[in-house]
Amino acid sequence: MAWWARTRGGPREQGEARSCRRTDTVRFGAARRAGRKDGGEAGAGHPGPPPTGFSLLPWLLMGLGSFSNLLQGETPNPWVGGLGLLAFNSLYVYVTFRAFDRDRRRAPSTRVALLLMGLLTTALGLGYGGSWLMFFPLLGLATGATLRGPWLGRVGLLLTVYAGAVSAVRGGWSDATNIAYATFLSSMVTAAILGLSEAVRELRAAREELARRAVEEERLRFSRDLHDLLGHTLSVIVVKSEAARRLAPRDMDAALGQIGDIESVGRQALTEIREAVTGYREGSLATELARARSALSAASVEPVVHRSGSPLAPAAEALLGWVVREAVTNVVRHSSATRCEITVDSAVERVRLTVTDDGTGGAAPRAAEGIGGTGLTGLTERLAAAGGTLRAGPTPRGGFTVTAELPVEPPARTTAVAAATAPRDC
Q1: Are 124 and 170 in contact (CB under 8 A)?
Q2: CB 17 within 8 A of CB 9
């Protein structure tokens, strides 16, 4: 029992292996049933349960000829032959069961067991010949299952020549040709089939992991977009509602104007949410600057906007538009500022956006919140993915400054990453 436990691994490892095989088998059965139900090929999308050492055990039937010779008394020194047969079968089971675990088949103990199999096969073949030479194809099968790497070709050819030479010495050239061919075929075909099966499973696992990560990243991106979109829109609605409430007692026309703006902002928000979900909204820096002026004016903050330089790429405009939206939202919600200055300067290689306010009521807490908050943290990651930077913090004279920089012509990879920050179909 101790030998069998060492062959299969510890109790915990055995339980984990059985659990994995059971889970994969259940998934394979479900895929087959789904395939039959849909009228397609059963289990076409699933590679099936993983192979184990049991799949190589039936090949031990190739040794029935030698076992028959022992039972019929045709083998000299039957006790030696019987012990040799038992030792070979034990080593074969040990090696083949370890061959389906990458770490175990590369372990020195597995290689030593494979070498002992080779020595034992040589001794039995030279000692008895005949059907005992069929252990060489079994040795080739165990070798192909264990050595799945660059050394397989050299070892396989060397083993083929060696098996042919031993067979020629013991049984003649006719046996040598058959044994050499069977040894070469068993080692190479076994390695090819098992290597292909393992590669297919690894590729499938990698594809599932990439799909899972893509879903997680899409959820995170969409949550950030909704935070930026709704946070700004709701802040504008709250500010304009407060303005309408203050103006209503003394200037009903101005209050009605603010209420009309609230209606317009709400309708625009509904449109943007629909476009964000369906994936047709593209950010525009000019549009965001116009909205920033309106939101700041409604909050009794003087907007000052300066823009200079050449036109920007759509991806850069979309990213900077999100920065303007988030920074102005923070000014409206958290600042007691009376003036907010927005500057866009597009140079030859980089474009810089700066949003500065003169608020003094909550500079210190706003700095901690802005740098570590959800909005600016997400924008920092987006700009970094596109090759840019984002800095946020209090100014020496009071107030708060958000500075974003982006390359004017980002590389193709960063352009694709930056474009992915715009909302698209989920």
Answers
A1: no
A2: yes
